[in-house]
Fold this sequence. Notes:
The protein has helices at 15-26, 62-70, 72-81; strands at residues 2-10, 37-42, 53-59, 85-94. The protein is α+β, with helices and mostly antiparallel strands and 95 residues long. The radius of gyration is 13 Å and the shape is globular.
Amino acid sequence: MIRFIVVFKLVDNSEQNMALIKQHIMSLEGKMPVIKHMEVGNNLLLGERVFDLAALFDFDTMEDVHVFEHDPIHVEVVQRIKPAVAELKTVVYQH
Length: 95
């Protein structure tokens, strides 16, 4: 199983904006068979080093990750949320 994690620092980390970004990301659920499991959550810690939001995706293979990254459904969500994202980081690992 491959786990793909993305953390986001948002331009506006108000609760309303975070809820909107979460909604956009969660719109992927059920639309892409390569996604075996997904979660999106707000960070609960305060401080300079923290990011605002995290998205977790599980896939069977790295090929499925590549399919996900280039799928038009995913690309559309990325384009929708991109203006709201100040910074993001990813980690992909096998578990």
